[in-house]
Structures are given as structure tokens and as C-alpha cells.
Design goal:
This protein is of the alpha/beta class. It is built from eight helices and nine strands. It has two domains: 39 residues, no CATH class; 239 residues, Ribonuclease H-like superfamily/Ribonuclease H (Nucleotidyltransferase, domain 5, 2-Layer Sandwich), CATH 3.30.420.10. Strands 1, 2, 3, 4, 5, 6, 7, 8 and 9 form a nine-stranded mixed beta sheet that branches.
Length: 297
């Protein structure tokens, strides 16, 4: 026995070490003996849950609140949307995960260098839960609160107000981070200015607790279907990105619209304390950090 308590050596290196100790053995025999002892080549498994500061009871209460909110808006025939930013994509001849039916493989660049891309696609998605319809707005610069709110306002102007002509309320389900995060002042301020004040809507926002974004409906009802549709196909142009999004459908009737948003956005928008104090916002008494309502006052 030596002081070595663990090893990351190959079977060839283990055999070489054993020969130094006078044990003549081949790498294949080392592998066979390791298997007999219960060892095998294994990969890491993502099984450990994220360590969250949120108490399970608090998390469960928020899920119950979101369920009640969705049911209330559905009963009253009001729009409820799920929003989020899909994974950013490099535009160009780069490898896209997945497989597709082809007679020959498509040759792509051997490295995914952003400097060699034609641009960057930032898909901000809006999923109409009641109608089972999706809209993706493809940004080309930055994922900011201003970009997120502009996409939601564009959805309302192009689709929402015609699908729900009598609606004066809108529910938004969002993750807790990113451009529509719980701590973003700009997100709340711009929602009130561009949706509430501009279009006369009362907007109720409910955020999913940290580490639970995969339960946001847009993730498994819209984004996953788009990923399956363009799997294994290089996103070599913005037109290709838009076409694959627009041709995404499901047997349950999902249809998706796509639009390019080429405007440049600057990060770091500052909203002052005075502006926040004047904001007509009512926070939920039980869970104010995740739930609030903005009015067009």
C-alpha cells in the first residue's frame, strides 16, 4: 500500500505502476479486474438538486399562487402569457446539437468562435397559454429589460389586443432572473410605462422561484419544440432561424410566429428611487418579491 488514496489513471498507467511493484499484468487484465470489483467507466450524472435559499414551503406556496392566478384569468377569459429568453445562438455555419435526416453530413466550422459569426440571435419568447400560440422576437444586440418589454408590447399590438379585444388585464409568468428578473427596476418601470399607461392594461406579474424555471410553460411547450425542429441543422442566417421557428408545430395545435428585432439596445438603464416611489405598483402581501400588479394610473 502507498499513500495514494485515489487515482485518475488509465488502465495502461495502472499496469505500468504494478510492473514497478513486480506484478506483471496487461491493461486488459486491469480493466477486467476493475469490473470484477464493481468499477466501470462512468460519466457525471446531473442528479443533485440545486441548493436554494428558498424554503420548500415558500416555493410550494408560490406554485399554488401561480395556479390560482392562471385559473382566475382563464375563468374570466383574460390573457395570461409565459415569457422568457431562449438560449442565445451564433448565426453562421456552426454545429447545432441533435441529428437530422440527410444523405450526407453538413460540414460546419470546427470551432464556435463568436468573431466568425454573422451575428447573434437572442430569441425572446411569449407563449399565450390559453390559445397555445407562441411568438419569438429575435434580437441582435443585448437581452435587456427594455428589449423584453418591447417584445411584449409588440406582441400585444400585433396579436394580443385582437385576440382579447375586451381585456383590460394581463397576467405575465416569468423567471426570477435575466431581463425580466424580480430585482430589475427597469423591467417594472417599463412594463408600467409601455403596457399599463400606453395601452390601459393592468398587468399582474408572477415570478417562478429560483431553480424552478423549467416549470415555466414556455420552456416545455414552446422552446423545447423549437429546439427539436432545428436539431442538427446549422443556423446559418437570420432567415434560417426565423423559418425554423415559424415552421414549428405540434399535434396539439401549437403555432409560432417569429419576427426580427434589429434595434440596438444598451445595457445599464438606471431607474431612480424617485421614479420607483411614483410607480403605481401593488405587491402581494404574502410573497411581495415574486408577485405584484402594475396599474395604468
Amino acid at each position: 500500500m502507498t499513500d495514494l488514496k485515489w487515482t485518475h489513471k488509465t488502465t495502461a498507467k495502472i499496469a505500468e505502476e504494478l510492473r514497478v511493484l513486480g506484478i506483471d499484468i496487461s491493461p486488459n487484465s486491469v480493466a477486467r479486474l476493475l469490473k470484477q470489483m464493481g468499477y466501470s467507466l462512468r460519466v457525471n450524472h446531473k442528479q443533485l438538486p440545486r441548493v436554494s435559499k428558498v424554503a420548500p414551503a415558500e416555493r410550494d406556496a408560490q406554485f399554488a399562487h401561480i395556479t390560482e392566478l392562471r385559473e382566475d384569468f382563464a375563468l374570466r377569459g383574460l390573457p395570461a402569457i409565459s415569457v422568457d429568453t431562449k438560449k442565445k445562438e451564433l448565426v453562421g455555419l456552426f454545429k447545432n446539437p441533435g441529428r437530422a435526416w440527410n444523405k450526407a453530413p453538413v460540414n460546419v466550422r470546427d470551432h464556435d468562435f463568436a468573431s466568425e459569426a454573422d451575428g447573434k440571435a437572442i430569441p425572446y419568447g411569449i407563449y399565450d397559454i390559453r390559445a397555445n400560440l407562441g411568438s419569438l422576437f429575435i434580437g441582435t444586440s443585448r437581452d435587456t429589460p427594455e428589449f423584453a418589454v418591447n417584445c411584449i408590447e409588440a406582441w400585444w399590438c400585433d396579436e394580443g389586443q385582437y385576440r382579447y379585444p375586451d381585456a383590460t388585464e394581463l397576467a405575465i409568468l416569468a423567471d426570477g432572473g435575466g431581463s425580466n428578473g424580480t430585482h430589475s427596476r427597469a423591467w417594472k418601470f417599463l412594463l408600467q410605462r409601455q403596457l399599463c399607461r400606453q395601452h390601459g392594461l393592468t398587468v399582474t406579474v408572477a415570478h417562478y422561484p429560483p431553480g424552478t424555471s423549467k416549470w415555466n410553460p414556455i420552456e416545455h411547450r414552446l422552446f423545447s419544440e423549437i429546439s427539436k425542429n432545428w436539431a442538427g441543422r446549422p443556423l446559418d442566417s437570420y432567415e434560417t432561424v426565423l423559418n425554423y421557428i415559424r415552421t414549428t408545430t405540434t399535434a396539439t395545435g401549437l403555432k409560432v410566429r417569429a419576427q426580427l428585432m434589429s434595434r440596438a439596445y444598451d445595457s445599464g438603464m438606471k431607474i431612480t428611487d424617485a421614479q420607483m416611489q411614483e410607480l403605481p405598483i401593488i405587491k402581494n402581501e404574502a410573497m411581495p418579491k415574486w408577485n405584484y400588479t402594475l396599474s395604468p394610473a
